[in-house]
Design brief:
Blueprint lengths: L2 H26 L7 H17 L23 E3 L13 H14 L16 E8 L2 E7 L5 E3 L2 H4 L16 E8 L4
Antiparallel strand pairs: 1-4, 2-3, 2-5
Helix pairs in contact: 1-2
Length: 180
């Protein structure tokens, strides 16, 4: 193994360990020690190294997972379909490249976009049956999340019952946040 590969493998192992610990602190202890941007930089560095050195990519890498284990203090909800997360972007160049990829994938389409600053809150899934709110859950690890229905019911803009004729089953996903 060449020096560059050994160095990359060592850094990949360090990043995986650091990211797993930060995920544990954030998701299981609810006590993060670094900010989102610093975490995203570690994550991006790991993803870049795994792309450059695919021989060191692993199925249990944090880049192949969403979030962490849900808190045991909450009832668990298994999502009907995985709740995945979106990638973060910190530069105009990354947004421009994303748009160019869309244009290459959909060459005959007019692609209109609206770009807004990232809002950081909690990703939630709301499940309505016959127009009535059944439950609300966090993203958790993407497959299983924390049931937060009582908390969601305190948000006036989220209806307990849908007014319009609703489908038998409706799942809404979005971000809940508090203005400061």
């Amino acid at each position: 193994m060449a020096d560059a590969e050994r160095s990359a493998k060592r850094r990949i192992d360090q990043l995986r360990s650091a990211i797993e610990e930060h995920n544990r602190l954030y998701y299981e202890e609810a006590a993060p020690t670094i900010g989102d941007q610093e975490f995203d930089q570690l994550y991006r560095e790991l993803a870049d190294l795994e792309a450059k050195f695919p021989q060191f990519a692993a199925s249990d890498s944090p880049t192949r997972q969403v979030g962490g284990k849900p808190l045991t203090a909450f009832t668990q909800i298994t999502h009907r379909a995985p709740m995945l997360s979106l990638d973060n972007t910190y530069s105009q160049e990354e947004v421009t490249e994303f748009y160019r990829r869309l244009q290459r994938l959909l060459p005959n389409e007019e692609i209109r976009v609206i770009v807004e600053p990232k809002v950081d809150g909690v990703a939630v899934s709301l499940l309505y049956k016959n127009g009535r709110l059944q439950y609300a859950a966090t993203r958790g690890d993407g497959a299983v999340g924390d049931e937060i229905t009582q908390n969601i019911r305190t948000i006036r803009s989220i209806p307990e019952k849908l007014r319009a004729k609703a489908p038998r089953l409706l799942e809404l996903r979005g971000e809940v946040y508090i203005f400061k």
